[in-house]
Amino acid sequence: MEEININDFAKVDLRVARVKDAQMVEEADKLIKLELDLGDLGLKTVFAGIKKAYSADDLKDRLVVCVNNLKPREMRFGTSEGMILAAGDDDIGIFVISPDAGAKPGMQVR
Predict the structure, then answer these.
(1) What's the mean per-residue pLDDT of the chain?
(2) What pLDDT was estimated at residue 48?
(3) Nearest to 50 by CA among 25, 13, 75, 82
(4) What are the backbone angles phi and psi of residue 33, rounded to the nearest 5°?
(5) pTM > 0.90
(6) Among 65, 69, 100, 102, which one has the highest count of C-beta atoms within 10 angstroms of its own C-beta?
(7) Which residues pair with residue 48 across a beta bridge?
(8) How many CA atoms lie within 13 Å of 2's alpha carbon, on the beta-carbon side?
């Protein structure tokens, strides 16, 4: 992987978000449609490729970490306005990254 400097990393706005709603995208093999609550920053729709690891009900009300300033991307199923962080892959599993208790929607991850 190419190294980046601290100025490159500082451009990424990571925020705590609460999954307000989650819906399986029936026509997609990997996608779940998430409505994220970012507190005072409002709501965002994000399509996440985590369908093999999570049901929609598993995600509702869960705190996640969102890339808040990712350029929106037009997809076949709608516009994705960000990205949530997850680790792993299809072989070992996918694990959504969650902040500790006490974190609130909209908080900046530093």
Answers:
(1) 95
(2) 96
(3) 25
(4) -90, 125
(5) yes
(6) 65
(7) 32
(8) 4
Helices (H) and strands (E) in the chain, counts: 2, 9
**Strand bridging mode 83-84 / 14-24:** unpaired
CA 24 to chain centre: 15
Name the residue type at position 48.
A
Tokens 């190419």 label which residue?
Answer: 2
């929607």: which residue's tokens? 105
Per-residue pLDDT of 22-34, as tens digits, reads 999 999 999 999 9
Give the pair of three-digit tokens for residue 29.
């093999």
Which residue is listed with tokens 């994705």? 80
36-61 per-position pLDDT tens digit:
999 999 999 999 999 999 999 999 99
67-89 as b/e: b if 16+ CB within 10 A: bbeeeeeeeeeeebbbbbebeee
